Structure formats: C-alpha cells, structure tokens
Amino acid sequence: MPRQMFTDEYWNKFKTILLSVRIYDKPTLRQTVEGIFYRMRIGCPWRDLPATFGKWNAVYKRFNAWSLQEKLMSIFQELVVDPDLEWIFIDGSIVKAHQHSSGAAHERETVIGKSVAGNTTKIHMAVDACGLPIHFSVTGGEVHDCKEAPEFVAKLPLANYMIADKGYDSEPLRIQIREKGAEPIIPRKQNSTIGNDAVDWCLYKYRHLVENVFARLKHFRAIATRYDKLKRNFESVIALACAFIWLPM
Length: 249
Fold this sequence. Notes:
Nucleotidyltransferase, domain 5
C-alpha cells in the first residue's frame, strides 16, 4: 500500500474545499486526489501510478480537466484565509525542466526558458509574515526577478512592509511598492552610490521564510524537477502543494 498524504481530519477539510469549487463527490474522489499527490511527491510518470489509486489514465484525466478549468488554483485561493500581511516576502527560484517536459503542442504555453542551467522554469513566490504562500507565478528560467516583479507586485494584497533581495533592486519597483502603501526593504547592489543605511537588516533577516516555502515545495519531486509540459499543469501542481501547506492552518 503506497504511503498516502491525507489524514481523515485533513481530508474532511480538503473535501469541503473541493466541493466548494464544484468538484463532484464521487466514490473514488479521495483515491483520485491521493493519486495526484502521490505523483507530485514521487515525480513518477502518470503511467507508473500504483493500481491502488485506480487506472492511471482516469487519474490523469481528472487532474488535467481540473487544471484546464482552473479548479486546482481555486483550491489554493480558497485556503488562503486571513494571511498575516504585516510583512510580505518575495523571491524567485529556478527549477530544472526534465526532457519529458518538452514536446508540447506549439500553440500551448509552456514557460520553459533557456538559461545557464539549460531548460528551466522560475517560480516567483510571495509569502506572508507567518511564512505561508499567498501568491505565485511561473515564467521561463531566463526571466530576471526585476522583469517579472512589477506585474507580480501589482497582484499582491496591501501590506506594511515588502521584503526582497538584491535581485529586486530597482527604483521604479520601490516607487510601485510605496504607491501600494508598503515600505520596501530591498538592499541596493554593491555598486550603488546611495548605500543601504535605510535598510532594516533585522527585518531583512526574516527573508528566510520565503526560502523555507521553496524548500517545502521541493519536497514534492514533481516541483523540484519539472515534468509537466504545459504551464497550467505545472501551476496546478504548485497550487496543490501550496494548498497542502495551508491545510493545517
């Protein structure tokens, strides 16, 4: 019997969210969801799912349909309840794209880019003051943090402080953050003539909270290495992993 992810307590809570996003309560629902999480955790091909979870093709079709209808993203959004928005930490992390992630139809969006590490995808993440994920986006691995930051920050809720590393050192971005009512805590690069006297280094040290989320997400091997061909499917995997982090809250 493969190890499963959900206790009865967690499943009852998760099932309520599933029903709220119009995923139907079929007799095999828990079995199907456990199969999706098993594949996320192990990183195996869909065809190699143990028979315990039912026919692999049925599990994959459910996952793909829910992804297409954006229901898996809605599950994550439903679980983000009352985040602590005193601080927001933002950062990006690159993941390698496995050769099995190539080959998508040309009209489908993949966001797999070429970088120094080869074929990669970058996850841009925002977490609250408790270290819980509240928003994310994915781009090609070659996309610099500063390039994605304006659109990413625009979608974040109001906060008192927004903390990021030197990769986000941009004066227009600082202005955008202040216009949202937050104070940016972003160190300037070494060649800056302004310096970092205004940086709250004590608060900046808590930036490890966003790194911790990346570490937890990459316990799922289907996130640590990207196997999904389509952007929406990879986003759905990340959304489910973020939802699982929120589940005990």
